[in-house]
Amino acid sequence: MKDNCTILWAEDDEDDVLMISEAAKTLNVDHLIDFVPNGKECLDTLLRSIQSQSLPQLIVLDNNMPIITGYETLLLIRQHEKLNDIPVAFFTTGNSGAEMNVIRTQASVFKKPSDYATLLSTLQEVLSLCKS
User: Fold this and answer.
1) Residue 14 CB: number of other CB atoms within 10 A?
2) Fewer C-beta neighbours within 10 Å, C or N terminus of the chain?
3) Are the C-beta atoms of 43 and 77 separated by less than 8 Å?
């Protein structure tokens, strides 16, 4: 992962945000992650980032979010010419179905870990996707 890789992470579960933040702190990358609580705020942040020319190098989406789901957010990101080449990691508890088949063609999929040690290793995998 690049030392200055910036990550936009859409996650609505505050407990998950705390665990991810703690894992990021352990890996010394907590200062590089900007959390937003849903897909709409993710898209709003990305559109502002286009204007300020400060796009993140990686986007991480949770699937089950209010307002706009991770799946819907992913599709909108992939349709936007200035966003479609940013790597997307998709965090989910589910791993099957027609939606997941589409997601796998557009993003790297990671199952949400249930313990801290697995979260650390999964977070390292996610961070390795950071756009150079």
Assistant:
1) 10
2) C
3) yes
Q: 18-74 pLDDT, tens per residue?
A: 999 999 999 998 888 999 999 999 999 999 999 999 999 999 999 888 899 999 999
- Measured from the Cβ of residue 72, the count of other Cβ atoms closer than 10 Å reads 17
**Residue the block writes with tokens 């990101």:** 77
Strands (E), 11-103: 33-36, 58-62, 88-92
User: Whole-prediction pTM value?
Assistant: 0.92
* Interacting residues of 70 by C-beta distance below 8 A, sequence separation 6+: 10, 39, 61, 62, 63, 64, 90, 91, 92
